[in-house]
Design a protein that fits this description.
Blueprint lengths: L1 H18 L3 H8 L1 E6 L2 E2 L3 E4 L2 E3 L1 H12 L3 E6 L5 H6 L5 E2 L7 H4 L3 E2 L4 E10 L9 H4 L5 E4 L4 H8 L5 E4 L7 H5 L5 E5 H10 L4 E3 L7 E5 L2 E2 L4 H17 L1 H9 L3
Parallel strand pairs: 1-5, 1-6, 9-10, 9-11
Antiparallel strand pairs: 2-3, 3-4, 7-14, 8-11, 8-12, 8-13
Protein name: Transporter substrate-binding domain-containing protein
InterPro entries: Solute-binding_3/MltF_N
Keywords: Signal
Length: about 260
Amino acid sequence: MKKTVLFILLTAAVSAQAQTPDTLARVMESKQLRVCSPGDYKPFSFERNGRFEGIDNDLITSLAKSLEAETVMVKTSWPNLMKDFTAGKCDIAIGGISITLPRQQQALFSEPYFTNGKTPLVRCADVKKYQTIEAINRPNVRIVANPGGSNENFARTALSRANLTMHPENLTIFQEIIDNRADVFVTEAAEAIVKSHEHKNILCGVNPEQPLRPAQNGWLIPNRDFRFKAYVDQFLHLEKLSGNLNTTINRWLPR
C-alpha cells in the first residue's frame, strides 16, 4: 500500500514538473527570446517599416542581451494577444500591456514598470467639457474604442451610456477625433501624452497626470513559470536602481 501511494506521489510530481515551463532554460539554450507585441502603441512598442521601437523594445533588448540571446519579434493584435501568448507563440509579451485581473487569470505578469491610467483624448477645444466619467458617459457623447484591449473594456463598462463606435485598429483611431467623427477616445495616459505632442493644439489629453482610472503596465510571462518571472522581475528591479528605466522612459515619452 505504501509503495503504491509513493508511486502515485512520484508520478504526480514528475508530471507536474513536466508541465511546468522553463522559459529561462529554453532561451539560454536557443539564444532566442520570442517577443509578442501588437506594435501599435507609442511610446511602448511601435512597428515602423518592419522594425519595433519604443520603451518596451529597448528594455526587452537589454533583457535578451543579459541571457546572451537575440529578440525575435512576433506580431500580434490586441484581440489575439492572450490567445497567441497562451498558445506558446512567444516567451514574453510586451507593448504597454495593462495589468488586469482577466489577463492575470491566464498568465503571470512581471512586476509593474510604469504607472499609467485611463485618460480621455479629445479635441483641444473640448478639454473642459470632458473632465470626468460622468461628463463623458452620456448618450450624446460619441466615444470611440479599439477592439480587444482594456480601452474597449473601459468603454463598455465605465462608459456604457455613451454612444460607442468601434474602430478596427489603434493606428488611425486618433483621426476619428480630429475629423469630428467622435468626441472622445479614452486611452492610457502615456499614449494621450504622445498623441497630444504629435498633434499639438489639435488633440489634448485631459489631465493625464490624474487618470480616470489608474493602472500599471507589465510584461506577460507564461503561466506557472515562476523562475522566469523571478529573473524578469530582478532585471526590471536592477533597471530601476541603475536609473536606466527612467532614462529609457524619458527617451520615448515627450514632456
